[in-house]
Amino acid sequence: GNAPPGVDPEAFSWFQTVDTDHSGFISVKELKQALVNNNWSSFNDETCLLMINMFDKTRSGRIDVHGFSALLRFIQQWRSLFQQYDRDQSGSISFSELQQAFSQMGYNLSPQFSQLLLARYAQRCPNPNPSIQLDRFIHICMQLQSLTDAFREKDTALAGSVRLGYEDFLTMVVTRML
């Protein structure tokens, strides 16, 4: 069939392939089966759920062809950014590349915090030089942006610090978890 108005024909074609149950919607499971990192590993469940939720206008836990088309554009933009920061073209982002990416994106994060993120999101394998794939890079950046926005809402004086009660902190985090 022909692509609906406003949907890229290539995205429509891929949508039809990814929609394995022919429901007219893409689920987290179907999206995970369709997306791969540079090392051919599947995208992480959490990242697929974050992205589905981002493009799911009906809050049904799945996306239609329009949401899928927008999601593909979103992923392509992240893939371009990822490749820009993957200076050694290894297909993954190392600690130093992650530090530089954060800096260029305007985040003033300590090496210790970047190391913590890398340890949390790197693939679980014995590697003296952990690195992250595209899916985890997207995940980290989406969460950082969301939590930064929440912080800025509280930091009205742009002082770089806020005073929060425990429940205010929890509310800020929980409402921003995508």
UniProtKB/TrEMBL annotation:
Transmembrane segments: none annotated. SUPFAM superfamilies: EF-hand. Keywords: Calcium, Cytoplasm, Cytoplasmic vesicle, Endoplasmic reticulum, Membrane, Metal-binding, Repeat. The keyword Cell inner membrane does not apply. This is Peflin. It comes from Dicaeum eximium. GO terms for molecular function: calcium ion binding; calcium-dependent protein binding. GO terms for cellular component: endoplasmic reticulum; ER to Golgi transport vesicle membrane. It is a peripheral membrane protein. Residues 6-41, 73-108 form the EF-hand domain. CDD domains: EFh_PEF_peflin. The keyword Calcium applies. Its main location: membrane. It comes from the Eukaryota. The gene is Pef1. It is found in: Cytoplasmic vesicle, COPII-coated vesicle membrane; Endoplasmic reticulum. GO terms for biological process: COPII vesicle coating.
